[in-house]
Design goal:
Layout lengths: L18 H42 L10 H17 L3 H17 L4 H9 L2 H15 L9 E3 L2 E3 L3 H26 L3 H7 L7 H30 L7 H32 L16 H23 L2
């Protein structure tokens, strides 16, 4: 009996084994690698989510322009600019706004490629896919070219292309504003600043607790999959894998319920009254007021520019 390199788990093979048995062993090895592959992908996804959150907090602590502003002022700047982008129908005004957002990201020490990828590889890309059919079905004006599909005559017009570009650019500006706000503001400060908009305390509390403990549960899920991977020494059937996933979900749910009761009891024992408190003491400065006034003037200018130039 001899050992062959690469056999599954060091399983011995005989020199006189048939090609059918060798082919079966190779197939089993591929199945085992596939079973372990989804575990590794899940582990990588959980780890990436945690690292992304930590990376975001690091940007919020950078000595950039937006990081130094009062969170309440940044939230007001965000609301005013989003309203201006939503009410604007001019592609030029939206492009100018995006240029201003790129300058703000640069002044806030955000990596340019990271900021652009995070914005345009997400929602605006799918917004372009959603708006794509309307380019060919919108009537009015001469068509650039025509597609005949039975009784249907389809084709893009200059008006439909301009409308689609405005829609995608408006979504891109809104997402860019949201990313700027999140990357330059710590989560606790952002939640506290929501009180300026009269958001109910219970809603802010739920967001705060969810953000705080979702990473703890991600760490628990990561431990589940690491334990699963370290204890997998052979092929498992699909039913066994589904049974394990259901058991893991039930265990995680039981832990979450138990932890929620313990956390609430600990909060009440320490005098929790429902008000979110942070170490930051908010005080408006001259730079905060000037930044808000400049943003308001920019939003008003873009709004009227959108009314004049289409």
């Amino acid at each position: 009996m001899s050992l062959r390199a690469g056999d599954q788990l060091g399983e011995p093979t005989r020199a006189g084994d048939s090609p059918e048995r060798l082919a079966l062993s190779r197939q089993e090895r591929r199945q085992l690698r596939h079973q372990l592959g989804w575990v590794e992908q899940t582990l990588a996804g959980v780890t990436e989510a945690i690292e992304r959150a930590v990376f975001t907090e690091e940007h919020a602590r950078s000595p950039g322009w937006l990081q130094g502003l009062d969170p309440r002022v940044k939230l007001g700047m965000f609301v005013v600019t989003v309203l201006a982008a939503s009410l604007s129908h001019s592609l030029l005004a939206l492009l100018l706004l995006y240029g201003a957002l790129l300058l703000a990201a640069r002044a806030s020490l955000l990596p340019f490629d990271f900021f652009v990828r995070r914005v345009w590889l997400g929602i605006p890309f799918f917004a372009g896919i959603v708006i794509l059919p309307s380019i060919f079905f919108t009537s009015g004006g001469p068509r650039l070219f025509e597609l005949v599909i039975g009784p249907l005559h389809l084709g893009p017009t200059p008006a439909s292309l301009l409308g689609a570009a405005v829609f995608v650019m408006r979504v891109g500006d809104a997402v860019s504003l949201a990313v700027l706000l999140i990357l330059t503001t710590r989560w606790a400060d952002l939640l506290k600043s929501l009180q300026v908009l009269r958001v109910p305390q219970i809603f802010i509390l739920l967001l705060s607790m969810t953000y705080r403990y979702i990473f703890l549960f991600l760490h628990t899920v990561n431990g589940f999959f690491e334990a699963r991977k370290s204890r997998t020494v052979g092929l498992t059937s699909g039913s066994e894998q589904r049974t394990w996933i259901v058991a893991a979900l039930v265990t995680l749910m039981n832990r979450s319920f138990q932890m929620s009761n313990e956390v609430y009891a600990a909060m009440c024992a320490r005098g929790f009254t429902g008000t979110i408190r942070t170490y930051s003491d908010y005080r408006l400065r001259t730079g905060d007021v000037l930044a808000f006034l400049g943003t308001a003037l920019l939003a008003i200018g873009l709004f009227f520019l959108g009314r004049v130039i289409v």
